[in-house]
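Q: Two folds, back to back.
A: First:
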Amino acid sequence: MQFLKALFWFLILGVIAAFAVTNWHPVEIQLWSGLVADVNLPFLILVAFLFGLIPMLLLYHTVRWRYRQRITMLERTLEDMRAVHATPPPAQPADAPAAPPLVLS
């Protein structure tokens, strides 16, 4: 299985490298005040990809951290509740009068 994962990643990297080599053309980007930036197309695509990926990655890790914190708090609460219910009720002394039985009418 590890071999198949490595083969998959090598194929993906090969496709990306072939795309970068065949599309290595400068692209002019018009900036403010008449400035023009010459950027290679693969670099521009990489920057656009990262511009979309990084905010979603930050959101994913934030939500995951919040859920882990919540699960930890709920597990602690559950352990506290189990500890409260696990302790036996205090024993009554032998000379204490017993409670009268309930009579339902």
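A: Second:
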Amino acid sequence: MASTTSLIRLDHPATDTRLLRDAFSCFPSGVVALGSVIDGAPVGMVASTFACVSLAPPLVSVCIQRVSTTWAKLKHARRIGVSCLSAAQGEACRQLAAKTGDRFAGLDWSQTEAGAVLLDGATALFDCRLYREIPAGDHEIILLEVSAIRMHPEREPLVFHGSTFRAFEARDSAAA
């Protein structure tokens, strides 16, 4: 099949934040929980902008709104746990994203010696420290340096797409 090149005009300006948010939701992403014990209590939040950044040094990133009062607390923690949520953790994700209430009520979690909070049942767990914050519009790009990991690849990940949680569909590799 021959390829052709033609000019295309996109439908909407990127200044329409509602449409931009809808366009971003066309790309599926995993969901992570960030957490640490601060002043004796777990503090946590969720992010759907998790990405692997570097192997040497081992870095991951999340993007967090500058107005986040939870991140304002977490960024001072000695260690921050990152839990890649599993498909079974949709309700836990909603709870951790709530603006009010005890985000950890009824959730099973553990902490490292340095205070990183990790959710039981996640697909992968990372013990991290803050490496760098980079201003980016109305968000901060947060780089976290990974010091230890645990993984459970047999667990299906929680996927966020089209403003809702979805499940992967297994495909036969011969049919792909």
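Q: And?
A: The two ends are 19 Å apart (CA to CA).
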